[in-house]
User: Which sequence fits this backbone?
């Protein structure tokens, strides 16, 4: 090969690289736009006056009217409902990880009888419509005093979040070679120590993912919340329940009010969710 | 170390969860569990304008039919509960009949309650199962822009179905698309239109002549009207929305579901009576009631609240909050919202019309109330949406209707002639 | 000894929990589907299957799941692959892509209805671009295909993030050395994706598929918002029988049908994407 052709090839690859990077960046931007555009429209409508919301053609710039939003913030009991929502979501999170992660570990590390049955049972909770279960559960709760407590509602939400916690932790534990743990045992760690020092850091993203799901599921769940809480209503049961029959401008404002806290939560845990790449590079 | 911290956190949360539950229940407000005034603004108005006047604090909760029913059924099954007063439409109470307290001996403080409604409130028993609380009806509404397309010689306050069809046809042809709207969505109240408007106007009946040749004609007319109806109607539930966005120019709906349009732009919209057919101008009042479940924690307070709801002042405040009209005799003050004035006039014109042919809400159907409505909804969906043969569908649905009537043994109600035993389907 | 009891000990809390809060109410509801006044009967299943909407609802649910889930998996894999190649700003991009997670199906229905309704955003764009001069009715009852497409779009938007998060968490576990080694041997990006990422990601793909499919069979709020009564789905019919028709027996029968197809599909995924006891890393 002559020197000339070599430089040409280098230049050509550089050119391809550059074009590749452009396509890469463009793809990412398009995907971001696809996700953000509907949210943007929600915000536009939430920040517009009723007339603007009903107008056609619609404006793509908000009118910066905060009346509709203010209507929700001025609702008596919003603060308490917000607190209840967060409380229920946090208990749900703690319960579903506490119950789900050990189960996920067991499923990934052991062969035992009843494994298949357990897996199907966990999934059934997600595959069966909750509104039908709400009646027997409500009767049970009223009789046992769990009715109208944050804990009671969180227990129901946990049944919804548990399949996520079990399966996600299961799939991540399965991805971690058992040799890694065994190596720690030979180095004198007990099973528990090995788990904590070697495995736990590796599955942290999975735990964070389960936590996000648990939080979001609990946050957005309406039916059980409407049936099982009376004085301790969650924000969703308090606001969202009847949004679909409310006037347009309030629909959007209410929708926006509900989306924000969930977004803040995901933002808060994103570090754990996504910043774990380095660890895998063992 | 991390783990212990998480465990402590979890324990603290659990404790907080249980505690938060027990903390609030010491002094319980009266829980008013309702399917009405659901839109958030109305809920808020019920709390701030209507119930704040009651001596004791009231917790007004409006929810969808699903949670509403599930909760009360759970309380009844468990034998104890927190709900003091139930609010709902006539149809909402039918399955709960056996578990509602008799309210016939209540002292209402001299108010005169509409007798027909009081009769309805007995739900086919000899006890007062619910007290009428408020009423509404269905009317037509139109954007004033649509009025210039009215067929020649048509009086908007005395329209016939044929004129309505001609009108919507002109609108569809001259404005670029169908402009009539009908609440045929999952949450729309379409069944009452067929039961209380279309059938009485064409057959002078709701049940007996379900599959008569006249009924066939009625459905064919409706199919014709449907051609000029906005095809997105199958998603509509509250016509005020589409009137305001001008997706539709002419619409039929419940007065409370049109109110927002009249209130936001009173000068742009008119309300007028439902159209008339060969057997008169069928229309139907809707009544909501208050009832007390046998599990109410404080029976006296609940009864006091029910009585309070029927006071003339409360009824007027309720009208302002929800656009449902009073069921007791009251003089309406002048400072009423636009929606009340506009739709009130239309209702008056409708019930006062010479050819008025009022129908009543279904009575004595018990558990079968939902299935009764479904007969009309299914008939609509099969004939109009799925395009099935009118005769065949009517024959088939008539069988379902007959078995429902026979199972519940409900006698006929207006406009059908009173019957001995179950209302027959000819 | 410990090897044999440990898994059961680990499963015990979750099992006890599910027995009380799921199996117990579930059995009560399931019993209603097969009994009438205390006696066994298949009458409710017959009523359900005989209703004229049943087969439509069944097939709509199936078709929706079939149309949505595979596209979601492909899209999420693609997005996750992009993420792995990203340098700075990865956090931000990933965060943006997971935003729809926080949006409930009710809210998503409201948002997408605002786009597709006659005076909605889509028509606003089209008319300001001069493509149309009259608003188009996208969600009319005759255009079932358009409604179906709108629902598919909304579901893709709303629920792809669930798959994405599961896959991204799983991808983080694939050792970088594998890719480096593959690169040394001259494997291109596509080959690396097919030969390394896909096989090693199998546990996560399986999980994502199972969860997403089960959720797809329960689709309801978005369909109701966009499709109204035009696109009956199994979950909607369950609601209808439980609350409008107040026939708990038939509603329970519907619920069991949803459960049955979910379990059937789960078993298929468990078989075809079998994850070995210890991943052969």
Assistant:
């Amino acid at each position: 090969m002559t020197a000339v052709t070599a430089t040409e090839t280098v230049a050509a690859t550089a050119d391809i690289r550059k074009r590749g990077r452009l396509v890469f960046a463009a793809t990412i931007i398009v995907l971001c736009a696809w996700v953000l555009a509907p949210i943007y429209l929600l915000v536009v409508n939430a920040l517009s006056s009723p007339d603007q919301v009903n107008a056609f053609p619609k404006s793509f710039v908000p009118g910066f009217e905060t009346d509709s939003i203010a209507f929700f913030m001025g609702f008596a009991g919003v603060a308490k409902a917000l607190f209840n929502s967060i409380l229920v979501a946090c208990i749900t999170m703690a319960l579903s990880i506490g119950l789900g992660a050990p189960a996920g570990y067991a499923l990934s590390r052991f062969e035992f009888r009843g494994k298949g049955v357990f897996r199907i049972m966990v999934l059934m909770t997600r595959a069966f419509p909750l509104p039908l279960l709400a009646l027997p559960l409500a009767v049970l709760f009223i009789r046992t005093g769990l009715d109208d407590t944050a804990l009671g509602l969180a227990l129901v939400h946990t049944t919804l979040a548990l399949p996520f916690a079990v399966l996600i932790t299961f799939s991540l534990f399965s991805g971690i070679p058992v040799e890694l743990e065994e190596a720690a045992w030979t180095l004198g760690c007990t099973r528990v120590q090995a788990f904590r020092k070697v495995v736990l850091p590796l599955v942290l993203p999975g735990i964070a993912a389960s936590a996000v799901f648990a939080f979001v599921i609990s946050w957005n769940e309406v039916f059980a919340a409407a049936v099982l809480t009376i004085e301790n209503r969650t924000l969703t049961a308090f606001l969202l329940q009847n949004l679909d029959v409310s006037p347009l401008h309030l629909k959007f404002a209410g929708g926006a009010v509900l989306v924000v806290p969930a977004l803040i939560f995901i933002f808060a845990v994103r570090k754990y969710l996504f910043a774990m790449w380095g660890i895998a590079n063992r | 170390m991390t783990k212990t911290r998480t465990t402590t956190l979890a324990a603290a949360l659990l404790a907080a969860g249980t505690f938060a539950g027990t903390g609030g229940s010491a002094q319980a407000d009266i829980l008013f569990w309702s399917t009405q005034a659901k839109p958030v603004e109305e809920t808020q108005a019920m709390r701030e304008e209507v119930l704040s006047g009651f001596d004791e604090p009231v917790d007004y909760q409006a929810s969808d039919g699903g949670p509403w029913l599930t909760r009360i059924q759970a309380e009844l099954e468990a034998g104890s509960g927190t709900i003091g007063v139930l609010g709902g439409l006539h149809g909402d109470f039918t399955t709960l009949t056996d578990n509602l307290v008799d309210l016939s001996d209540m002292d209402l403080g001299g108010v005169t309650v509409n007798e027909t409604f009081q009769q309805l409130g007995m739900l086919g028993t000899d006890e007062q199962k619910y007290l009428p609380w408020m009423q509404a009806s269905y009317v037509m509404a139109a954007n004033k822009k649509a009025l210039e397309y009215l067929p020649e010689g048509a009086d908007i306050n005395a329209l016939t179905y044929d004129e309505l069809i001609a009108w919507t046809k002109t609108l569809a042809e001259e404005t670029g698309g169908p402009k009539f709207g009908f609440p045929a969505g999952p949450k729309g109240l379409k069944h009452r239109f067929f039961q209380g408007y279309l059938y009485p106007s064409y057959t002078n009946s709701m049940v007996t002549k379900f599959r008569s040749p006249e009924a066939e004609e009625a459905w064919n007319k409706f199919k014709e009207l449907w051609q000029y109806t906005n095809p997105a109607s199958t998603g509509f539930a509250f016509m005020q929305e589409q009137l305001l966005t001008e997706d539709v120019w002419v619409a039929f709906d419940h007065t409370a579901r049109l109110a927002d349009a009249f209130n936001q732009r009173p000068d742009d919209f008119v309300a007028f009576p439902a159209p008339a057919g060969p057997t008169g101008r069928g229309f139907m009042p809707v009544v909501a009631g208050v009832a007390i479940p046998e599990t109410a924690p404080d029976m006296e307070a609940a009864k006091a609240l029910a009585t309070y709801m029927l006071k003339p002042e409360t009824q007027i405040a309720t009208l302002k909050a929800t656009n449902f009209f009073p069921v007791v005799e009251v003089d309406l003050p002048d400072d009423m919202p636009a929606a009340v004035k506009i739709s009130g006039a239309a209702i008056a014109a409708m019930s006062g019309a010479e050819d008025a042919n009022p129908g009543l809400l279904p009575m004595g159907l018990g558990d079968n109330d939902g299935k009764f409505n479904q007969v009309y909804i299914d008939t609509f969906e099969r004939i109009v949406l799925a395009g099935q043969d009118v005769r065949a569908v009517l024959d088939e649905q008539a069988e379902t209707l007959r078995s429902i009537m026979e199972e519940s043994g409900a006698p006929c109600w207006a406009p059908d002639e009173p019957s001995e035993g179950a209302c027959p389907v000819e | 000894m410990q090897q044999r009891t440990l898994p059961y000990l680990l499963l015990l809390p979750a099992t006890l929990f599910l027995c009380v809060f799921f199996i117990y109410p579930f059995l009560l509801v399931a019993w209603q589907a097969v009994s009438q006044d205390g006696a066994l009967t298949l009458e409710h299943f017959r009523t359900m299957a005989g209703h004229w909407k049943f087969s439509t609802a069944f097939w709509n649910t199936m078709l929706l799941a079939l149309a949505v889930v595979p596209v979601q998996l492909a899209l999420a894999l693609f997005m996750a692959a992009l993420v792995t190649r990203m340098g700075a700003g990865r956090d931000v991009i990933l965060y943006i892509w997971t935003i729809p997670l926080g949006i409930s199906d009710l809210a998503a229905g409201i948002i997408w209805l605002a786009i597709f309704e006659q005076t909605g955003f889509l028509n606003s764009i089209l008319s300001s671009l001069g493509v149309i001069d009259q608003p188009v009715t996208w969600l009319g009852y005759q255009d079932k295909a358009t409604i179906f497409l709108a629902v598919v779009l909304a579901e893709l938007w709303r629920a792809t993030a669930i798959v994405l998060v599961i896959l991204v968490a799983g991808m983080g576990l694939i050792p970088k050395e594998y890719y480096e080694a593959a690169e040394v041997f001259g494997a291109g990006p596509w080959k690396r994706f097919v030969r390394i990422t896909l096989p090693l990601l199998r546990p996560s793909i399986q999980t994502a598929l199972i969860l997403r499919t089960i959720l797809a069979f329960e689709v309801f709020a978005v369909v109701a918002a966009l499709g109204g009564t035009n696109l009956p789905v199994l979950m909607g019919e369950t609601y209808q029988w439980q609350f409008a028709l107040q026939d708990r027996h038939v509603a329970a029968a519907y619920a069991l049908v949803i459960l049955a197809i979910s379990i059937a599909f789960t078993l298929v995924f468990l078989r075809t994407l079998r994850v070995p006891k210890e991943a052969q890393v």
DSSP finds 15 helices and ten strands in chain B.
